[in-house]
Structure formats: C-alpha cells, structure tokens
Write a structure and sequence with these properties.
The chain is α/β, with parallel strands linked by helices. Helix content is 37%, strand content 17%. The chain contains eight helices and five strands; from the N terminus they run E-H-H-H-H-H-E-E-E-H-E-H-H. Helix 1 packs antiparallel against helix 2. The longest helix is centred in the last third of the chain and has 19 residues.
C-alpha cells in the first residue's frame, strides 16, 4: 500500500535526516507536510549570505587576498568586524595549492536495492582536491553540536553522496565542518571514512528509510533539550517546552454595506 506521507522514492537530505534522528514529529511536520513554523527560529539569512560571499571570493580570486576580501565585504554592505573575523578564520583553514576546486555543489546518489528506494541529495559548500584527498567543507555560522563530524546524522548523507566521486578518482574522502563564528573555538574532528564506515552509513540511511515506512504514530521525542529549540514546540502534543504559536494572523476585511 502507498504510504500516506512518503513517496515511493524517499528524498533524503542532510537536514531531513538530522530532523528524523532528533524527532519523528519534527521530520513529519517540517519535511513531509511542510507545516510553517509555529515558533520563532533564528533566521538563516546571515549564514546564507556568508556562504554566498565565500563562493564569490573563491570564484573571483582568493580568500588570502585581503584587498579582494575587503572589497567583496564592502560591496555587499557587510564590511564589519564580525564578517572580517569569519573570513580570516576561513583563510586560516582553506587549502592553498589545490588541483580542483568547486563551490556550492549539488550532489546526489540513488539507492535502488534492497528496497525501499531513496534518493540522497546534498549541497556541498566547497570541494577541493589536493594531496590525494577529496576535501569537502560544510561552513557553519551557528553553534557546534558535535565533537566529531562522524556523529552528525547530516554527515551520513554528505559522505554517502560524496563517496563514489572520491572512489572513482582514487582519492581519500575527508568531510570537515568549518565553524566561522568567533565564539566557536575549535572545529569538530573531521571525518575520513574508510570502507567499513561507508558501508555502515549506507546501512544507517537504509534503516532510517525503513523506519519511516514502518507504521508509526509520529510521536515527538519529549526531550527538553530538543523541544526548547524546536520550531513546532507550541503545537506538538508531546512537547515539554510549550508556548503560544506565533503564526501570522490574517486580517478579515468586511465588505462595505450597500
């Protein structure tokens, strides 16, 4: 029988798998039903802007060219200490001499057998090939959640889609989360998966899709640490951090009397 919410081929992204791992109801509301957030969440605008500026800087020059970086920040109206610090932090960790570089790359990989089928998709912020490594980066502008990239469910999707590209080129795969905000002192430990790791990741993703297809009541996790930052905490019956939903109200305009 068709699943009431899932398509025949399930789409997996880093954010959707991370949501599933955190809370099934968060996954249902945000990624299957597309329910607008009922509670305020931090705006992603700053992070998106920084990602775009890093792409712009690398495609038109180098992040180690201070004049180029300053002109880029000024032309986009963000020549302040925060953004200068973010770019300086990146320049310290950016590879120097590379064979290939690419930015904001959409990568996908299809899983057919064994069923159920799924399509994994990920946008990779930067990919460099150097020293026999396919060096993939995920820029972060928020808080750090994990001490190791390997422990982040988002990384399972990213390594799953990147692994065939590294293997075809005979390269080692390295996934690094690069935290740009000055309040995050250290990056988590990068992930360089071996064959056993990659096999385990494929099994984890397949198991997640099987669990999504299984009969479930989509209950919330009821975890205070997760609920208090959830964008659906006010409307989830299992939330332990309740509040009033903040959906925008529509004004009803009465027609004039004839």
């Amino acid at each position: 029988m068709p699943h009431p919410y899932l398509p025949d081929i399930v789409s997996l992204t880093p954010t959707s798998v991370e949501a599933w791992a955190r809370c099934p109801r968060l996954f249902l509301l945000g990624h299957l039903l597309g329910v607008p957030p009922s509670d305020p969440v931090p705006t992603p605008d700053r992070g998106q802007l920084v990602h775009e500026l890093l792409r712009f800087v690398h495609e038109r020059g180098t992040c180690r060219d201070g004049v180029h970086v300053e002109e880029t920040l000024e032309s986009h109206g963000v020549a302040d200490d925060l953004h200068r610090t973010m770019f300086a932090r990146h320049a310290q960790r950016c590879p120097g001499d590379v064979d290939i570089d690419a930015h904001e790359c959409d990568v996908a990989r299809f899983h057919r057998f064994p069923a159920p089928m799924f399509m994994a998709n990920a946008r990779i912020d930067a990919i460099w090939v150097h020293d026999g490594i396919l060096d993939a980066r995920d820029y972060k502008t928020g808080r750090r959640w994990h001490d190791r990239v390997a422990d982040d469910p988002s990384a399972w999707v990213q390594t799953f889609v990147l692994a065939p590209h590294a293997q075809r080129r005979g390269l080692r795969l390295r996934l690094r989360y690069e935290y740009l905000a000055p309040e995050v002192v250290d990056d988590p430990e990068p992930f360089e998966p071996d064959d056993d790791d990659l096999e385990a990741i494929g099994e984890k993703l397949h198991a997640a899709v099987r669990a999504m297809w299984a009969p479930t009541d989509w209950r919330g996790c009821g975890d205070a640490g997760i609920c208090r930052t959830c964008r659906y905490r006010s409307i989830c019956p299992d939330s332990v951090s309740r509040g009033e939903p903040e959906w925008a109200a529509l004004s009803v305009i009465e027609p004039p009397d004839n």
